[in-house]
Structure formats: structure tokens, C-alpha cells
Amino acid sequence: MTEPLTPVAARPAASVVLLRRPDEVYMTRRSDTLRMFAGFHVFPGGSVDPADQGLAARRREELRSPGLPAGEEAYAAAAVRETFEEVGVLFALDENGRPLWRPEGAAAHSKALAEARGLLRAGAASLEDALNRYGWRLAGDRLIYLARWMTPPAAPRRFDTRFFLADLTGGVEPDPSPDEIATGEWLSPAGVLERASRGQVRLMRPTRAILADLAAEGAFAAADRLVDPAAPRQEVVEESTPEVLRSVLAGLGVWLAPVPITGGTFVTEVNAYVIARAGEGLVVDSGGGEEALDPVRKAWRAAGSPRIRAVVLTHTHRDHAGGAPHLARLFGCPVWLHPAGQRAGAPLADVEAAALADGNEISLGDWRLQVLHTPGHAPDHLSLFVPATGVLFSGDNVLGDGSPWVGPPGGDMAAYLRSLERLERLPARIIAPGHGPPVDEPPSRVRSLIRHRLAREEQILALLTERPQTVRSLADAIYRDRARGAVMDMARRTVLGHLMKLEGEGRVKRLAGDPERFARIR
Fold first, then answer.
1. Is the CATH number 3.90.79.10 carried by domain 11-239?
2. What are the residue ranges of CATH 1.10.10 in the chain?
3. Which residues of 32-59 are buried (b: 16+ CB within 10 A; e: fewer)?
4. What would be the CATH architecture of the domain defined by 457-520?
5. pLDDT value at residue 266
């Protein structure tokens, strides 16, 4: 048994929303080669480092920012430094009081600014070194404190970020650093959100929320209001809600595509996923048929339209595999699945298929996805784990809500519990399940499923202590009025799955002459 992973401590960070009249914000697109949030549109910013703390202690008055609480000047220091390093805009004044973010000041100090920026980016000097060398003073009052957002515990990297507004109207044109930034451009907040809705721009949840607020109020109207230090600021410590966890997954290169299930089953959706890294992609699971095409295509566009290498099936139950031929034809790619799924006759006519086995690795850019054979719910069940991000694709072994049925045909309760124990040992931070919302605290969630199954086993043994019983009578006693129709059918299969496990362990037996009735072996 492993203990639940301790949430990563949130690193202090700062980000600057540069404004230009009449109503534009400056956004950069992160390089596709970066490990985290590759390809996302963001505002300039980054972590608060120890040098920022020291700078804030020695130049506190220069870093006073409207609305920023006293004692948090290190966030303003990081905001100034990161904006200078990333896009070449320095909110500072020279010895004559000329703003270095305006053309006249920048022109007068062009050589010094270029030299200082290069040294900062190389780690050869600090911002304070440059200020002391050239006699510059910080202009923290140009940064208006806007909001605080903290990343939820499920994220493998967490930030406690202060966002600032800064008016750059009439200022120098930003010059993005090519090693971190693919592109930079001025956009209207509403325009960014429109492009994001079409899958042309990828946004993290705080960025999207800030843009929505600026679009509704007007960026400069918000700045005018927030000049008053007493004006309320938005402070959000994100909880692990389904919406937030979907945003976390997207930040880790995973886009959820809920596919509707037709046919009157007790679940209404199955989760397909698009994983994207460095222009390459995978689709995990496919839904039950052609109805998967639109949601998966939408997720693929949101992921930046990567080249899809394969459709990977966690198992070949129809709700997960029926749409695979349609997606394979859409993307011109093969379907990868466990050999037991191929032998069972998965619906892959006229589609190239290849086998995945336990221990295989799938390369995707610089990521390696581990393939784990995790039978129990189905004999061909696979799980996928991405060590670089801590994302576990659990298929139907771990659901977002409730627990899966495990029983005939094909189910094996003993194998299922062994598979859960294996999944529990993984250093996963978020689960992308086959049904339901994403799951945080994976080891705790998996352990709860193990406890649930063992408790159900003890309940069955206790009922059999009273008298021999059938699967139907056991299911009726356990579930009573809580399950009907298809749900009760699944419940009976799971009860039978428990009985078959207990039978194999020599703890129960079928009565001679009445094989439908089980008795406990004392």
C-alpha cells in the first residue's frame, strides 16, 4: 500500500497583462518544446525567485503596486523582471526620470537594455545588478494588481500567481524571446476568446477567466477601477472541480472528448481523449460509433490539430471501441489494442490494427507513455501512464463516479484487485477515466475502490453464513431498491464475479445438485 501523494507546494509567480488602447492585450504563445503548457497562449510571467525577494526587500518603495498587499512586493519584482526577460519591456526609469518602456527612453539606453536583458536570460546577472549599474529605478506603480489564482492540488506543478495590468499604450513594441515564446501579438480579449472557442487558441482556466472579465468590463475600464488600492481583487484558490481538472488535463496536453452513448444504457457518455505533444497525437478510446467523430474532432482542434499516430483502445467493449474504425479513417491512422481484444474480434474491419502488450512504451514527442495490461473489468484491458505529467488513463478500472462492474462475461475480480494494486503504486497525480469526470488524488481513489470491493466480499460472505443463496438473492439483499434494470444486471454480474473469486480461493462452493446456489465453506 502506498500513501496518497502529498500535493506539490504552490510556487509564487507573477504575470503581467500588457494593455494597449483602444482595447487590446498582449499575448504570447508558449513554445511547443516546453514541457508544461506547450502551445498555450499566456501573458508574460514566471516564478518568483530568491533574487526577486532580495530586490523587493531593498527597493520596496519602488515596487509599490496599486492594490498589492504590503509585504508582497516580490511578486511585483518578478512581474517586472519576467516582462523584461520575455518580451523586452522594462518598467523602470533612468536617472533623468525617462520611462524605459517608452521609445525615447528605450532608444537612449538601447545598448544597455540589450546587454542587461541578455545577461538576465543567461543567468549571468540579476535585475538588481542592472539597476545598480545603470542607475535605473523601478516603476512598480505602473503595475496594477488585478487578481490572484492558485493552481489546484491535482496539478503536478502548482503556482500561486499574482496577475497585474500594465498600460503600454505608446510604449515600445514587445520583442518576444524565441527560446520560450513561439509568437507574440496584440489581441482583443473578446477576439482571443472567440479564437479559443474555435480551437485556434489554447488557454488555461485563469487566463480564460481574466480575458472574459476584461472583455465584459473593458480592459481599460478595469484598469481605471483598480487604480484605487481599495478596489476588490479577485482571489481564487482553485478546487479540484471537474471543470478545473479538465483545465489541468488540457494544460498537461490532454483534451477530454465526452462521446454520447446511445442504446439506453445506464451511463450516457464515454470519455475519449486526445493527447498532444510536439505536433504528434494519440486518441484514447473511441465511443461506440460515428457519434464519436464530432466531439473527438473538436478536441483534436483544441489540441492544435496534431498528427494522430493511432487510436489506442483501453479495451474492446463496444462503448469504448465501436467508434475506432470511424476515427481511424478520419485521421488515417491505425488502431492499437491488446492482443486479447484482437482475438475477441474487435470491430476493426478494413482498419489497420496493431497489438500493444504490457511493458510497451509509446513515444509522443519527448514523452513516453507506459502501457500496462490491467485485466479484471475485461481480459484485454490496458491502462496508460505518462510519467512526465502524472496522468493515468484508467479506462474502466477507475471511474470518475462509482465503481465498474466486474464479472462475466470476461470479468475477473481477482485480476481486477491485482490491477488496482498495481495502479495504486504509480506516482499518478490525476486520472483520466473511461466514464465520469477526471479524478484527483489517484492513490487514495484507487485504495478506496480496493476497500469497497473487499467490503462487498465480506458482505457476501456474511450473507452466505446465514444460508446458501443464489446470485439473484444476494444482489437483491445487497442492493434492494437502489438498482433496477440494467444497473441491477451489472450488480448481479459483479456479485457473481465476487463469488467466482471466492470459489477459486476455496472460500465458497456451489451446492451439489443446485449449482445456482452458493454456500460458504467453513
1. yes
2. 457-520
3. eeeeebbbbbbbbbbebbebbeebbeeb
4. Orthogonal Bundle (1.10)
5. 59
CA 507 – CA 522 distance, rounded (Å): 8
Bridge partners, 281 (sequence order): 276, 308
Which residues, other chains included, contact 10 with Cβ-Cβ below 8 Å and sequence gap of 6+? 150, 151, 158, 159, 160
The pTM (predicted TM-score) of the whole model is: 0.74
Provide φ and ψ at 419, rounded to 5°. Answer: -65, -40
d(CA 29, CA 410) in angstroms, rounded, equals 47
As given in the structure block, the three cell numbers for residue 376 are 479484471
Are 145 and 233 a contacting pair, CB within 8 Å?
Answer: yes
Q: Residues 6, 382, 349, CA angle at the centre, nearest 5°?
A: 150
What is the band of 251 on the pLDDT scale with cuts at 50, 70, 90?
confident
Question: Where do you find CATH 3.60.15.10 in the chain?
Answer: 243-443
Can you count the helices (H) and strands (E) in the chain? 17, 25
Q: Tell me, what amino acid is at 292?
A: A
Q: What is the pLDDT of residue 1?
A: 32
Give helix 205-217 / helix 219-226 axis angle, nearest 10°. Answer: 90
- The domain covering 243-443 belongs, at the CATH homologous superfamily level, to Ribonuclease Z/Hydroxyacylglutathione hydrolase-like (3.60.15.10)
Quickly tell me which residue has 493515468 as its cell.
Answer: 392
- Using the 8-state DSSP alphabet, how is residue 4 labeled? P
Q: What is the dihedral of CA 384, 390, 391, 395, to 10 degrees?
A: 50
| Cell matching residue 462 | 456474511
DSSP annotation of 481 reads G
The alpha helices in 138-239, defined as continuous H runs, are: 189-197, 205-217, 219-226
Which residue type sits at 170? G
